[in-house]
Write a structure and sequence with these properties.
Blueprint (H helix, E strand, L loop, with lengths): L16 E2 L5 E2 L2 H8 L3 H4 L8 E2 H7 L5 H9 L3 E3 L2 E2 L6 E2 L6 E3 L2 E2 L8 E6 L17 H4 L7 E3 L7 E7 L2 H8 L7 E8 L8 H7 L1 E3 L2 E3 L3 E7 L3 E8 L6 H7 L5 E9 L2 E2 L8 E3 L2 H10 L3
């Protein structure tokens, strides 16, 4: 039987199809391969970046990494409510909650909380239809869009917080968290300081919208012409401090808020701002359950 002659033709490894215009047409198998999801894509979103806990603490200002390892070993650090004692634990700072000595660390770099000494005759608003000075001249110093936490009336000066942390702002202004605020009150007073005034403020006075009382009240100064009294209370009703003194026949000539929770006005001059330090911000957050 005659042997078949072997053809010299070698088929190409890749077949290129062309349309009637001479353009290359990709094969159906190639198109299906492009359409099929890759193994990486089908596995879901990328894993979040995780960092060693001691590195996160060092960046937050708790010293060197070795010092932060000591803090961890002392049981002073918790992550998502669980105390961490093991070294080298990795966390996701953008998603997990870290406390040191019970104080929350703000690890989100996009959040900012600022203390402002609001000057007198500035409206606690971002815009005033009457054209008076408002808070925009102070918030525009920062790249983030900040909002005021609560209010101080037009005549009152002192500590006002500005933040872009909505949850923190909500809790600070919600009455259920009872955040204390301290005010220094000045009023004209000739003669002797009225006996029983401080006790009356502490026990409570009746206002048109219900009773109000100071948690603490103390005399700071009295020279026979005017007096200065410091009061601390946790209520935030409109003009409540002025109305409490007015109920006793006293009109305040100056009112300055000097403290909100653990945050102090300190030496901040009227119109100046400062970003809250990590420690005081953590204490403030812990005070409202964050």
């Amino acid at each position: 039987m005659a042997r078949r002659r072997r053809s010299a033709f070698t088929p190409p490894r890749t077949v290129r199809l062309r349309d009637d215009q001479g353009r290359t047409v990709r094969s159906g198998a190639a198109q299906e391969a492009d359409a099929a999801p890759s193994a990486d894509a089908s596995s879901g979103a990328e894993e979040p970046a995780r960092e060693r806990l001691q590195k996160v603490l060092a960046r937050a200002g708790f010293g060197s990494r070795r010092a932060c390892e000591t803090i961890i070993g002392q049981g002073r650090v918790s992550v998502d409510g669980e105390t961490v004692l093991e070294q080298g634990v990795r966390i996701d700072p953008s998603r997990q909650v870290v406390h040191v000595d019970g104080r929350r660390l703000q690890l989100d770099d996009s959040r900012r909380t600022v203390a402002l000494n609001k000057p007198r005759h500035v409206v606690s608003a971002m815009h005033d239809p009457e054209g008076r000075r408002d808070l925009t001249e102070f918030t525009e110093r920062f790249p983030e869009r900040l909002y005021h936490v609560g209010r101080l009336d037009y005549e009152t000066e002192g500590l006002l917080l500005l933040t872009n942390d909505g949850e923190l702002a909500h809790r600070l202004t919600h009455p259920s968290f009872d955040v204390e605020k301290t005010y220094v009150c000045r009023f004209d007073l000739t003669g002797a300081f009225p006996r029983g005034l401080l006790k009356t403020l502490r026990e409570g006075v009746e206002l048109e919208d219900g009773p109000a009382r100071a948690d603490r009240a103390r005399l700071i100064a009295h020279d026979g012409r005017e007096a200065v009294v410091e009061v601390t209370l946790h209520e935030g009703r409109n003009r409540i401090v002025r109305r409490m003194f007015a109920s006793q026949g006293l009109e305040l000539t100056a009112l300055v808020r000097t403290r909100i929770g653990p945050v102090l006005l300190g030496e901040l001059a009227p119109g100046e701002t400062r970003e809250l330090a990590a420690g005081e911000l953590g204490t403030l957050m812990a005070e409202v359950g964050l």
